[in-house]
Amino acid sequence: MARSTSTKGEWLEPEKKVKVVRVKTDSDVEERKVVVEKTVHGPVIEKHGRKVAVAWIGLTATREALAVYKYNHAHNITEFIEGLKLFDVPAQNVVYADIYGNVMYYPAGKFPIRLINGTEVPGNVIFNGSAGEGEWRGFEPYDVSTWESFIPFEEIPHLINPDYIGTANQRLFLAISTISAIRCTLQTPYRGMRIYEVLDDAVKSGKKISPEYFMEMQRDVYSKPAEFFIQFIFEAEGKMSEKAKSYAEKLRNWDFRMVKDSEAALVFSIWFEEFINETFGDEFYSAGLDKDFYPHLYVLQNLLQTVSGLTISGLKKGSREQILWRELWRRQLE
Fold it and tell me: Which of 4, 50, 163, 256 is a good FRET partner for 315, with 20 to 30 A between their CA atoms?
């Protein structure tokens, strides 16, 4: 248990409560006592032998129920946006369309701006709370917050009536301040890249964007990771056994579609898991971290791109995807 915590030079006793939890065992149900500790930053949790205090927006008074009520009673996009302003946690990638032809993308939620010595920093690290690092000004756990050091709703990157947009929880913008606030919640960009690829092709060909079209898109099983990583199989072909070469040959003319009866898809999936383990396994497991701690795939792709100077297949020179990837790689290295 934490005996006391230091906050900006002041020692504070954590609030402690003993909770009794009924736990089912193999033979019976037993009662176990758990000490719940709360600090000025949030509850104390322990993982891998280390204790940290966790700040989470859901620990303060939030207004999601009212937001959803306003969604359901909105008559137009303006009234819907008023509901969005009240959606605090968890942040949502909201897409909107109405009978008047309006469409909108808005990642609604509360995003804290974290500072160390006046410099804005990303939130994917553990901060020294005793020194006041990364404080969420205006956040009051177990109370009502005032939200002063959070990104204002109007400044959250969003789009109203764009030509089209594809969102799959990937990064859709490159604004430094906003990325610092929400970067650790983003997913790998492969699905988003594929959505844009399909949408761009449809627009260029004049294909009608209809409900049936989106049903077809939902069933798309093309693998963008396979498109990039498969080249490393053929680079190693000269060092393969005859049996391994026979498996590699199955990938020679593969269309990168992960359908259930595709032998090539199975071969790639098995190889890819081994490839990732060979890249990260030794270092992570020796540090007591299993594969759940491995970096996202785009980090691996970034490393390979940096080391070998490879060009991502399928990305046209000067395309939005190529520009985005270059920016991602640069910032990942930083």
Answer: 163
- List the pLDDT tens digit at each of the 334 positions of the chain: 344 455 566 788 889 999 999 999 999 999 999 999 999 889 999 887 888 899 999 999 999 999 999 999 999 999 999 999 999 999 888 999 999 999 999 999 999 988 888 888 888 778 888 888 888 989 999 999 999 989 999 988 899 999 988 888 887 765 544 555 555 557 788 999 999 999 999 999 999 989 999 999 999 999 999 999 999 899 888 899 999 999 999 999 999 999 999 999 999 999 999 999 998 999 999 988 889 888 888 888 888 877 655 444 445 455 555 555 454 444 433 3
Model pTM score? 0.76
Residue-range domains of the chain with CATH? 5-54 (2.30.120.10), 64-187 (3.60.20.10), 224-333 (no CATH)
User: Which helix (H) or strand (E) is 159 found in, with range?
Assistant: strand 159-160
Distance CA(254)–CA(250), nearest Å, equals 7
Rounded Cα gap, residues 139 and 114, in angstroms: 12
Tokens of 256: 């990168």
CA 138 vs. chain centroid, Å, equals 25
Residue 294 to residue 303: CA distance in whole angstroms: 13
Distance, C-alpha 274 to centroid of its chain = 24
Identify which of 181, 177, 160 has the alpha carbon closest to the alpha carbon of residue 91.
181
